[in-house]
Design a protein that fits this description.
It is built from 14 helices and 48 strands. It is of the alpha+beta class.
Length: 835
């Protein structure tokens, strides 16, 4: 098969205008206008609001090309578009060849008779989606969250990224353009249409069933040979071939002594290359297609147990606790997200000991590179279909057929990935009131069921029967489907902390089976805030800071919780930093509790890993790729072996727990020490501990009542750690008998020294008194820190590696990326400095 990529340099213009400007494909109209100097940065101050006209305008993309004689000589030629956003009309040499209305679908048209030798012209017109959705919403109103606050009404009528129309963490930037590949494809004999792989695992072998379809050129009936070769580390380990007379084929391969694929923290991410080829009678290769696969079983186990019904993922026969976060599009303009930035984010998840990401249903079916990288880093993928927080027009047969085609395209594209763990129908449609029922603006239960209980799972059952399907997140599989927070079964979205203003301690009352959403907000660090503000904007209650806060309770909630835990910050910058400590504390409370509840609870995915623009949000990594406090803390509370404590302020006791995610038992030393805020050691002790494989155990309950009666709760700090006998990573933790704002901390007199290192600078932080949640910064510089928000004790300095960032974010900031070489270039703070 011959393929010509039509990506690259195009022209764009507003419909009805002759004013052309350069455009890039793949891309979108916002990035093209920005590159051409036609608009300012949409993320700066309130430019987003001033640029709403872009989404209300019709746009045209065009270019000329020469297909070449070799392509024109082929018997069949098609134009394939993997992503047109969204209401597109495609013309080739003045002839209309097709229209589209779904940004998530792949479209392909026969253009054999439309192409000509020499210069050809393609023109793709994009109609604004705003009049389209407004007309349909006015005809039959359907409910959605956030109308008149952070979402454009009617967006549930269009099949494109729902968060393009705004969300409670994202801007309203309604895009248009050719956002994925566009190619001409020609062949004269046969080509591979599709193939899939089913695995059957034995004790020491894996049988692979490779089945698929070939497409034949017109009038071609010659038999062909289909051959499959499986390679590992470049070496063929199995192959099979068969003569095919018609269109379907099926081949069987056996892999002996397979190298299995495992999630992060459980083993290696072994990947095989499977190549399927078509050969003619003389052995000439006509077409080939390659996919990387992992040999593994990955199931959702739901069995009746003591507490109700389990909800746990099982890989290669071993249950595991799912640790991770929710994923949103990595930039508002997803076409400028590079492979390097994808890898940085996914690697960051793996470095924080995560093993699962949930691709949330209000964004996009991710780029192939996302799933490739999840395969490589051992990050299992919970994959939502793209429906979120809305009623949808399931009463419309055309809409349903459009969704069916969308589901088929994306299931076929993603299904072979080793990381794919679950297909999920939608986000929160069953949970939020006003979407399902018999009231105006709602879809009926029958309509809902036709979409999420029949159509979509039917596609999954036919095209990816080996991957489980879950109707909604959250979902209760028994009884009332609206009872989605039932702790007996299913998954839960627990937002009583944050939206419900419950205290952090509330998390410890929850015993749910799988927590697929919960979260707490923070601000990005000061330098990031400076990138989208003027000096006059730098107050969390300013208009611009409110524009970069899309939760309707956002900054008020942050401040309310902050004053519950910390003293009133002395400055704007300290407010931003304190919010990151606060966010980390909130999620730490939840995750440690749920990990202690294992095996009753077997998963925790916080909201959210990443951002799509500079904003106050629930993310643990901001839009530039800076780790917030939560990301550093996640590395600790998601550690394979975790020590945690449950304090009883009234009794003066602490329960010490050790949680072991490993597939083998862990032995080691649990030790604890009570320090006064002056740094004096009041008492210290420990014991040897053994915890079984994938178990959590209360290892000790220790009373500090006598010691507290002498120094008082507000002058007590309890540091504790678990050191495995095999000298792997030590788990450290700290707890208190008073809120941090009431602890009588003394000035830690922090000091730093610096030393040049191969990749930057090593900064050593020392303290004369205990310092809690210490962070380094180099004002004005975007840098990478090996650690932040750590604790420093007298006589126990901490060394941090500081280096230039390893990746350029989608919207590169104008900041220095060179670490200071002397201590004068750094600042160091702890919560003592907050207020």
């Amino acid at each position: 098969m011959i393929q010509i990529d039509l990506g690259g340099a195009w022209n764009a213009n507003a419909a009805g205008s002759d004013d052309l400007f350069p455009a890039t494909v793949p891309g979108c109209i916002h990035t093209d206008l920005l590159a051409a100097g036609r608009i300012e940065d949409p993320y700066y101050r309130d430019n987003e609001e001033a640029q709403m006209w872009i989404g209300e305008t019709d746009w045209v993309y065009s270019r000329e090309f020469d297909p070449g004689d070799e392509l024109l000589s082929q018997s069949a030629i098609t134009l394939r578009c993997d992503g047109l956003d969204t209401l597109a009309t495609i013309e080739l040499n003045g002839r209309r060849i097709g229209t589209t209305d779904n940004a998530f679908r792949t479209y392909e048209w026969d253009v054999k008779d439309t192409l000509k030798p020499g210069k050809n012209r393609i023109r793709i017109s994009f109609a604004s989606t705003i009049p389209y959705i407004t007309k349909l919403q006015n005809k039959k109103f359907l409910n959605l969250t956030g109308i008149n606050h952070h979402r454009i009404s009617g967006s549930n009528y269009i099949r494109k990224s729902q968060c393009n129309y705004g969300w409670d963490w994202g801007p309203m930037c309604v895009t248009a353009g050719i956002w994925r590949s566009i190619v001409l494809r020609g062949f004269s004999a046969s080509r591979i249409d599709e193939f899939e792989v089913a695995q059957k695992h034995g004790r020491k072998s894996v049988d692979l069933a490779v089945s698929g379809r070939i497409e034949r050129a017109p009038k071609n009936t010659e038999p062909v040979t289909v051959k499959a070769v499986l390679r590992f580390d470049g070496r063929a380990v199995a192959e099979a071939s068969s003569t095919v007379q018609k269109k379907e084929f099926e081949l069987g391969l056996t892999v002996k002594n397979p190298a299995l694929w495992w999630p992060n923290g459980m083993g290696d991410q072994n990947l095989y290359e499977l190549e399927v080829m078509i050969l003619d009678a003389g052995g000439l290769q006509l077409d080939s297609s390659k996919k990387r696969i992992g040999l593994r079983t990955l199931e959702l186990d739901r069995h009746e147990d003591t507490w109700g019904e389990s909800f746990q993922f099982v890989v290669n026969g071993k249950p595991f606790f799912s640790k991770g976060a929710n994923w949103i599009p990595a930039d508002t303009f997803v076409t400028r997200v590079t492979r390097e930035f994808y890898e940085f984010l996914i690697k960051s998840a793996a470095e924080a000991n995560m093993n699962m990401l949930r691709v949330w249903g209000g964004g996009i079916y991710e780029d192939d590179v996302f799933y490739d990288l999840c395969d490589e880093y051992g990050i299992c993928v919970w994959q939502d279909f793209m429906f979120a927080c809305s009623a949808y027009p399931a009463f419309d047969p055309e809409f349903m057929e459009n969704v069916r085609c969308e589901a088929i395209d994306n299931v076929k594209r993603i299904r072979h990935h080793a990381s794919l763990a679950l297909w999920c129908g939608n986000n929160e449609i069953e949970q939020i009131g006003g979407f399902i029922g018999d009231n105006p603006g709602e879809m009926t239960w029958k309509q809902y069921s036709s979409l999420f209980d029949k159509l979509i799972p039917g596609v999954v059952a036919k095209h990816d029967p080996g991957t489980p399907y879950w109707p909604s997140s959250p979902h209760s599989p028994h009884g009332d489907r609206k009872d989605v927070q039932n702790p007996k079964w299913g998954d839960a979205h627990l937002w009583q902390v944050w939206h419900g203003r419950k205290p952090f301690e509330w998390y410890r009352t929850c015993e749910h089976r799988f927590n697929s959403e919960f979260g707490f907000q923070s601000f990005p660090e000061p330098r990031v805030v400076e990138s989208f503000t003027e000096p006059k904007d730098r107050n969390i209650s300013s208009y611009i800071m409110d524009r970069h806060q899309r939760s309707n309770i956002g900054n008020d909630a942050i401040l309310q919780y902050m004053l519950s835990w910390f003293r009133l910050p002395v400055s704007h910058d300290m407010t931003l930093w304190a919010s990151q400590v606060l966010q980390g504390m909130a999620i730490k409370y939840a995750v440690e509790h749920w990990r202690r509840s294992m095996p009753r609870g077997m998963g925790t995915l916080y909201w959210q890993l990443n951002d799509c623009w500079p904003v106050a949000s629930w993310s643990s990594i901001d839009s530039e790729g800076n780790w917030k406090g939560l990301q550093y803390m996640a590395r600790d509370f998601f550690a394979p072996v975790l020590v945690s404590g449950v304090e009883d302020v009234e009794k003066g006791t602490i329960e010490f727990h050790v949680t072991n995610d490993r597939t083998s038992a862990v032995r080691g030393r649990l030790s604890w020490r009570l320090l006064s805020t002056t740094g004096e050691t009041i008492t210290t002790d420990g014991r040897d501990v053994t915890v079984g494989a994938q178990k959590s155990k209360k290892t000790a309950t220790v009373s500090f009542k006598d010691e507290l009666s002498k120094i008082g709760n507000r002058r007590a700090l309890v540091f504790f750690e678990f050191t495995p006998d095999d000298n792997t990573t030590v788990s450290r933790n700290v707890t208190f008998f008073a809120r941090p704002k009431h602890i009588e901390l003394e000035n830690p007199e922090l000091s730093i020294t610096t030393r040049r290192a191969a990749n930057g600078v090593e900064v050593t932080v020392s303290a004369k008194k205990p310092a809690l949640w210490v962070w380094l910064d180099a004002p004005g510089s975007r840098l990478q820190y090996s650690d932040r928000f750590f604790h420093v004790l007298p006589g126990e300095p901490v060394t941090v590696a500081v280096s230039a960032p390893t990746v350029v974010p989608p919207a590169p900031p104008k900041s220095s990326t060179e670490p200071p070489t002397t201590k004068d270039g750094f600042t160091v703070h702890s919560i003592y400095d907050i207020g």
